[in-house]
Amino acid sequence: MTETVRPYIPAMGRHWMLFLYDPFARFAGLPRVHSELLDRAGVQPGHLVLEIGCGPGDLLMSLGRREPRAELTGIDPDPAALRKARRKAGRRGLSVRFEQAYADELPFPDASFDRVLSSYMLHHLDAEQQVAAMREARRVLRPGGELHVVDADGTPREGSRHQHPQLAGHTPARIVETMGAAGLTGPREDGRGKGRTALGHYVFFRAGV
Predict the structure, then answer these.
(1) Tell me: the pLDDT tens digits for 175-200?
(2) Residue 2: what pLDDT?
(3) Which of 18, 48, 168, 182 has the fewest CB atoms inside 10 Å of its own CB, making it the most exposed?
(4) Which residues of the chain have pLDDT under 70?
(5) What is the pLDDT of residue 6?
(6) What is the distance of C-alpha 195 from the center of its chain?
(7) Quick check: is 55 in a domain?
């Protein structure tokens, strides 16, 4: 478990708003986005799967229902979100391991996972942390493993007056470049979202080792 406390952006942007996460996720259409990501990830029975920045654990809950024979682990720096995730998993009878950690300092040995997943986490990190997180994802992936990411598309659009400052410059091209800079193999866009959610446009990415 990570003992050093570092600044981080929690799932809802502010710690006190965590209780709103579940209704907001439904309103924002995250279950559909997660389903699309899992369709692309192709998790198989026996796969070891890590989600970086798991928050309250919704993506892993969906994966646990979809493929109960996979071994699931989630990390997040927010202890309150992890407590919420553990409660959810317990209520659903799902076996998911949750650990407090940072995406750029994963507490796992090399070549530990078949899949690494990330959902709406990458834009929470600055450019240097993004490269470090992707480098860590590469380190913990087994040969033949895959990284699958979905994140908001920060491409400026005509008529769009407001954009969250975390999305400035957070374009698909830059994310692919970041993956390549981290040493991942074949980084690429893996499709655009079906329509638009309350969080805006979103894009899928994949890379291997």
Answers:
(1) 999 999 999 999 999 998 766 666 67
(2) 43
(3) 168
(4) 1-4, 12-14, 16-17, 19-20, 24, 156-169, 194-199
(5) 79
(6) 20
(7) yes
Whole domain around residue 126: which residue ranges? 30-141+194-209
Please name every residue paired with 147 in a beta bridge, in sequence order, or none if there are none. 116, 207
Can you give the pTM of this predicted structure? 0.87
Flag whether 76 is in a domain.
Answer: yes
35 within 8 A of 62, measured Cβ to Cβ: yes
Structure token pair of residue 52: 């970086």
Side-by-side strand order, sheet with 48-52: 96-100, 71-76, 48-52, 113-119, 141-152, 202-208, 185-192
